[in-house]
């Protein structure tokens, strides 16, 4: 009968997908990232956004072998013309799968991941009506982008897969309804919620938050499992917060609190604190509500930690306590100005974070050592003449919390400049650049030059495509269609300071801007912020990773950063434009004019009103840059000078940093 056919061709494969899919879905905490994503706090990884506790493990290893027998096609959908429109709002979910032109080369540590995706692509091309293959391919594309920070290279393909799966599921739901199969209708509704939620993760991961908000809202129209519904609330609330819509963000998180208090404490509290820092009035009860929520549960959660025998339960309780004490640190630091209480809670927060977090500063220093060996004066001379000669890319680098977000917003206010957020295309290419260069060395320097130029051309193309996707998103949202194609596109990621050699190699004429800040303000600001990275372990599990939650490791990473910046200056003197944060804050117009001139552009007075522009800012500085220029961050560490004396001693000679804003003029023939 038709209900049985529907069960065996759609519902059973989708049930299996949910079981197996839990192992390949990345963490959804808005403060979490996977290895290689954004906001990496000066470590070898970097930042995603969103909500969900139950999908903590990232397992990219194939768990079932896709084949024709195990992937039945959708019954009753015989042609693309019958497909409903999906949620991704691309105009053609029924067409062919977008083909990726990105050349990664062979990268051993990710060969299994790439091989799995190649297999799934083949399945989708051969069985385009197989919902399970579509969703599994999209999940793996999304995970690879998150794990290896590829800058959203395959986002369009992932969106197409999810959109097509949603369209097929809608048709299946309609057919089930026509036969009176109510149970099947409810089951398909659950899968529609899940798949639409996954689609929203791609949009938010691409920093296209208005699209994400609409997709998450659509997901709520379906029958969602309780955990999935909370995921949607958290992801949408985070997107609202990034867009500056604090009132709607607070509503979503308040509803999350009512549904699951423990998940709120673990995954939602940090974002609510950020909302309160910007506008506590949108939270019912304001700061008093936050403090009451935390203080009434501190003892209960502390007991959970003391009584936990399993490591996973102990880490879960420690994470909640870390978030709770961090909220109280912010409250006393910003509101009561009680420095002793504030510092006590900051220390407690870091203590609990260290229970579930590891720090690996040695990986950072070892990485820098290898870069210095490769990019010496001789190598710089040998690659001279290679690369893409365009001046279109502008790269902003620096230590976390050094003013890179502010600098990007100032530049982005120029009508010919476009910022792409922290979804760095360049950072996502470094692995394949290394692989392709290694393969080319045996063929002579002429061939190496050819490879470098080809890669540079590809990165520019990918940056332009990402800008086109942003424009498409704005058009779908009804914004002004008279977008001027930018002549400069910003690729900003703090940790690209380690990739300056690669940037120069691919783009010898591109402007590279280094944002620098007072050493103690930089390190203390990074130390007190809640950076989180999920680090993949050899056994396939993940471990929380943060170099900044310990004073000594934060200082070690900072010193390594300063050393590598000194190295770039020694092998390529004058190649980098330095912008001092304190000078930018005190003399916005003067420094901004110098930066615009270095980019080869003419000045526009509206740049000074950068903070009034509508733009999502997906960094820890998002709530600050919307307020415009202020001097509160200068010498902020001195409020806790006595408590930070150990950090001062650890920094030693690195406390001295007389770098000033440089008036950059592109040199010719020096490199």
Briefly characterize the structure.
This protein has helices at residues 2-21, 111-126, 131-148, 155-178, 182-205, 209-219, 226-242, 246-259, 261-279, 286-307, 311-336, 339-356, 361-374, 377-382, 404-412, 425-440, 445-476, 500-506, 519-527, 551-571, 581-586, 588-598, 622-625, 645-651; strands at 357-358, 393-398, 417-419, 488-492, 511-516, 533-536, 542-545, 577-580. With 671 residues, the protein is mainly alpha-helical. The strands form 2 sheets. It has a 5-stranded parallel beta sheet, sandwiched between helices. A 3-stranded mixed beta sheet has the order 1-7-6.
How would you characterize this protein structure?
With 671 residues, the protein is mostly helical. The chain has helices at 2-21, 111-126, 131-148, 155-178, 182-205, 209-219, 226-242, 246-259, 261-279, 286-307, 311-336, 339-356, 361-374, 377-382, 404-412, 425-440, 445-476, 500-506, 519-527, 551-571, 581-586, 588-598, 622-625, 645-651, and strands at 357-358, 393-398, 417-419, 488-492, 511-516, 533-536, 542-545, 577-580. It is built from 24 helices and 8 strands. The strands form 2 sheets. Strands 3-4-2-5-8 form a 5-stranded parallel β-sheet, sandwiched between helices. The protein has a 3-stranded mixed β-sheet with strand order 1-7-6. A hairpin with a 5-residue loop joins strand 6 (533-536) and strand 7 (542-545).
């Amino acid at each position: 009968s038709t209900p049985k056919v529907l069960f065996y061709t759609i519902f059973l494969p989708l049930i299996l997908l949910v079981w197996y899919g839990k192992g390949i879905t990345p963490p959804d905490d808005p403060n979490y990232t996977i290895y290689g994503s954004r906001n990496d706090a000066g470590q070898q990884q970097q930042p995603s956004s969103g909500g969900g506790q139950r999908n903590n493990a990232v397992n990219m290893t194939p768990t079932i072998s896709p084949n024709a027998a195990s992937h039945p096609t959708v019954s009753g959908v015989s042609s693309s013309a019958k497909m409903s429109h999906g949620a991704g709002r691309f105009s053609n979910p029924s067409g062919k799968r977008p083909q990726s032109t990105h050349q990664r080369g062979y990268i051993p540590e990710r060969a299994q991941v790439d091989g799995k995706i190649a297999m799934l692509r083949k399945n989708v091309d051969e069985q385009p009506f197989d919902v399970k293959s579509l969703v599994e391919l999209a999940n793996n594309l999304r995970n690879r982008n998150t794990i290896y920070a590829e800058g959203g290279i395959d986002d369009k393909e992932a969106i197409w897969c999810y959109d097509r799966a949603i369209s097929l599921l809608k048709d299946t739901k309609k057919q089930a309804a026509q036969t009176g199969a109510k149970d099947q209708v409810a089951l398909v509704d659950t899968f529609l919620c899940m798949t639409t939620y996954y689609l929203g993760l791609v949009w938010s991961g691409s920093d296209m938050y208005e699209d994400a908000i609409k997709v998450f809202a659509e997901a709520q129209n379906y029958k969602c499992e309780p955990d999935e519904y909370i995921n949607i609330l958290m992801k949408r609330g985070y997107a609202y917060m990034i867009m500056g819509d604090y009132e709607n963000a607070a509503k979503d998180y308040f509803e999350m609190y009512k549904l699951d208090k423990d998940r709120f404490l673990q995954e939602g509290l940090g974002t609510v604190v950020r909302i309160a820092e910007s506008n506590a009035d949108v939270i019912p009860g304001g700061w008093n509500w936050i403090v009451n929520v935390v203080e009434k549960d501190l003892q209960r959660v502390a007991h959970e930690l003391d009584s936990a025998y399993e490591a996973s339960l102990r880490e879960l309780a420690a994470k909640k306590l870390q978030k709770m004490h961090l909220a109280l640190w912010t409250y006393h630091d910003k509101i009561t100005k009680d420095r002793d209480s504030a510092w006590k809670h900051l220390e407690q927060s870091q203590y609990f974070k260290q229970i579930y977090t590891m720090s690996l500063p040695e990986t950072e220093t070892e990485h820098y050592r290898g870069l210095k060996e490769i990019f010496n004066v001789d190598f710089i001379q040998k690659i001279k003449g290679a690369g893409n000669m365009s001046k279109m890319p502008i790269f902003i680098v620096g230590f976390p919390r050094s003013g890179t977000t502010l600098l990007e917003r100032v530049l982005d206010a120029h009508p010919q400049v476009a910022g792409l957020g922290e979804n760095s295309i360049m950072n996502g290419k470094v692995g394949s650049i290394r692989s392709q260069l290694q393969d080319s060395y045996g063929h002579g320097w002429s061939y190496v030059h050819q490879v470098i130029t080809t890669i540079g051309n590809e990165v520019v193309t990918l940056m332009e495509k990402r800008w086109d996707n942003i424009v498409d998103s704005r058009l779908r949202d009804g914004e002004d269609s008279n977008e001027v194609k930018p002549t400069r596109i910003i690729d900003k990621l703090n940790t690209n300071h380690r990739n300056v050699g690669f940037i120069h190699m691919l783009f010898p004429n591109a402007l590279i801007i280094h944002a620098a800040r007072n050493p103690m303000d930089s390190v203390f600001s990074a130390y007190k912020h809640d950076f989180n990275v999920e680090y993949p372990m050899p056994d396939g599990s993940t471990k929380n990773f943060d170099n900044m939650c310990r004073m000594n490791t934060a200082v070690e990473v900072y010193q390594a950063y300063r050393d590598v910046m000194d190295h770039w200056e020694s092998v390529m003197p004058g190649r980098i434009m330095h912008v001092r944060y304190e000078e930018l804050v005190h003399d916005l117009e003067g420094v901004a004019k110098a930066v615009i001139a270095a980019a080869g552009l003419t000045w526009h007075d509206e740049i000074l009103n950068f903070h009034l522009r509508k733009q999502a800012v997906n960094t820890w500085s998002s709530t600050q840059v919307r307020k415009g220029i202020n001097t509160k961050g200068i010498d902020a560490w001195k409020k806790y000078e006595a408590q930070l004396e150990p950090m001062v001693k650890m920094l030693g000679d690195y406390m001295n940093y007389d770098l000033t804003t440089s008036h950059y003029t592109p040199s010719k023939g020096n490199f």
